[in-house]
Write a structure and sequence with these properties.
Blueprint lengths: L2 E6 L15 H16 L6 E4 L3 H14 L6 E2 L8 H8 L13 H16 L10 H15 L6 E6 L1 H12 L3 H9 L6 E6 L4 E8 L8 H4 L4
């Protein structure tokens, strides 16, 4: 059956001035995933990413490891929600938690509470509403799972991927956040589809990360 491989980007540059750049480990993760696909004889006939640099760089690394160079489609619906702008909207009056964009524990604790408020439409003037976010993710996925394609590689981000899964499984918003927080870098999530139905077949898989390389390649940010 036709399959959409929805892949999270590689490790980005957490805490740096520009987060939206793969780290050296992120590049290594992407190429390793492409090499694993090659060993399984899995080759896409459609590749895609959002507009973010870390997504584009990840897809380039996967294609390099796989030994192909297909022209990608760009779907803004695959982009991550803008957590930084959400925080600015939430803490417009100040009192933002210290270290929330540089310390991992503070960051993820703040993410959980902020996204829950966003899902309830409790943050004034967000960069996009929760409804707008979910709609654009759904639109992108529908565009990728179309007639005439058999194997799709699409590089996205943790929040968008988790929302695609949550929508398919019809789970409450809290589970979207739980899935996002455990999503590994370059994790593969699989959807099989027909013109009438979509089925969820795999979550957060990293077959290219083994006991031999996990100390270096297993990351979450």
């Amino acid at each position: 059956m036709p399959t959409l491989y929805l892949i999270r980007h590689g490790q980005a540059s957490f805490g740096a001035d520009d987060y939206d750049v793969l780290s050296p480990i992120g590049h290594e993760q992407a190429e390793a995933l492409g090499q694993w696909f090659a060993t399984q004889n899995i080759t896409p006939d459609l590749v895609a990413h959002g507009t973010l640099r870390r997504q584009k760089e990840t897809l380039a690394g996967i294609q390099k490891g796989l030994g192909i160079d297909l022209p990608p489609e760009e779907h803004p619906g695959l982009d991550e929600y803008d957590f930084g702008e959400l925080l600015k909207a939430k803490y417009a009056a100040g009192d933002a938690p210290e270290g929330m964009m540089t310390d991992h524990k503070s960051h993820f604790r703040t993410l959980r509470t902020t996204v829950a408020e966003w899902q309830r439409d409790e943050i004034p003037n967000p960069p996009e509403t929760w409804g707008q976010f979910t709609n654009r993710v759904d639109t992108a996925c529908r565009a990728l799972m179309r007639d005439g394609v058999e194997t799709v590689f699409a590089v996205s981000s943790g929040g968008a991927i988790s929302q695609a899964i949550s929508a398919l499984l019809e789970t409450p918003g809290v589970h979207q956040t739980k899935m996002q927080l455990q999503m590994k870098n370059t994790a593969v999530n699989r959807f099989v589809f027909t013109p009438r139905s979509t089925y969820f077949h795999g979550f957060n898989e990293t077959p290219h990360i083994t006991a031999a390389n996990a100390d270096r390649l297993l990351t979450y940010a």
